[in-house]
Amino acid sequence: MPPETPDAPRILVVRFSSLGDLILITPLLRSIRQRHPRAHVTLVTRAEYASLFVQNPRVDELVTWDGREPLADLIAKLRTTPWTHRLDLHGSLRSRWIRFRLGGVWGSYPKHRRARMTLIKRKRDVYRDRRHVVERYFDAARGLEVVPDDKPAEIFFHNDALRAADQFLREAGVGLDRTLVAVVPGAAHATKRWPEEYWHQLVTTLVATGRDVVVLGGRQEEAIGRRLADAGGARTVSAAGLFDLQGTAALLKRSRGVAVGDTGLMHLATAVGTPAVVLLGPTVAQFGFTPYRARATILERQLDCRPCSAHGGEQCPLGHHRCLVDILPDEVADALRRLPQ
How far apart are CA 118 and CA 126, in angstroms? Predict the structure, then answer.
């Protein structure tokens, strides 16, 4: 339970997932801390993402949920505090159930589901609110009198994470005397994944032009990571599946640029200040999840079939996947070369 401090807000923030969405709430957390330095801020999130916030000075308390614990137990924990402000930054069935059971006045943000579905199904852009989702999150905190500071999202490291990343690169002999570039071939949804043969071509081009390469991703990218490391030879190493979120963020921090799709690691890269080349496929900027206040180049194709989904899918509805297939490796390599440093 937060300590009793006269007139200090006791703020509950709920956002369970996912990686990118959680990173994008950090500008709001920063603004809350700057406006209310004595506030006690409690964040409720899934246990797998807790490492994103354990070093974050904007958060006083983390309450984690592992996906197996009954929501009733989580709600019982939250009832022990007399919250002055309750922010639902998820807007899911689960977070709405918590709102109902916990009671009180809650702030929320516009998800624009109707405008999004109209754009997907009818290809009609009826968005009136063009704000990035980072700025829409601030609608949930109107009572706290906070405004965006126009700075990027942020991640705070364990020193151990940076040391482990440096040791990994030293032992691999990568990134010591040449520019290090990260590549992220994975994505949760198949239609957000660039063709593997394109990644092979990109890696070999980067190595041939004097760059070293580190492949990043989770356990599901271990196999492609090994194949890309083989393609790049001695100047390429795969860290896929070897590091947690803190370690992956540290490797991104050590990279001079990253090629990445519309994924959580794209937002992780921009949060640590690494310039990014972003391959935007089935989704579009109107959804509000492009890189925020970051050094980034977005590569995309203006096709009549885009967007085809809100989050990506298992296969291209039309079978051609041109939104990503038409973005060629040489274009990505050139964009990486021209990234602002």
Answer: 7
Q: How far, in Å, CA of 75 to CA of 97, rounded?
A: 10
Task: Record the tokens describing residue 318, joined without a space.
Answer: 């039309």
Residue 75 tokens read as 């709600």
Q: How many other C-beta atoms lie within 10 A of the C-beta of residue 32?
A: 24
Q: Where in the sequence is the domain holding 29, given as residue range(s)?
A: 10-144
Rg of the chain, C-alpha, whole Å:
21
- For 234, phi then psi, to 5°, come to -65, -20
Assess contact for 324 and 185: CB atoms under 8 A.
no
Same domain, yes or no: 220 and 310: yes
Domains in the chain: how many in total? 2
Element (H, E) at 97: helix 93-102
Both structure tokens of 77: 């924990």
| Reported pTM | 0.96
Q: Is the peptide bond before 18 cis (omega within 30 degrees of 0)?
A: yes
Model pLDDT for residues 120-166, shown as the tens digit of each residue:
999 999 999 999 999 999 999 999 999 999 999 999 988 899 999 99
Percent residues over pLDDT 90 in the chain: 96
Side-chain half-sphere exposure of 100, counting CA atoms within 13 A: 9
Quote the Cα angle for 314-329-325, to 5°.
Answer: 35
> Is residue 35 located within the same domain as residue 180?
no
**Domain CATH number, residue 193:** 3.40.50.2000
Q: What is the pLDDT of residue 4?
A: 46
Position 35 in a domain: yes
User: Do 181 and 99 reside in the same domain of the chain?
Assistant: no
Kind of pairing between the strands at 179-184 and 257-261: parallel
Contacts of 308 (CB under 8 A, 6+ apart): 120, 191, 282, 316, 317, 318, 323
Q: How far apart are CA 51 and CA 54, in angstroms?
A: 5
What is the C-alpha separation between 7 and 172, in angstroms, rounded?
53
Residues 53 and 81 in one domain: yes
Could you report the per-residue pLDDT of 246-283, keeping only the tens digit for each?
Answer: 999 999 999 999 999 999 999 999 999 999 999 999 99
User: Are 197 and 95 in the same domain?
Assistant: no
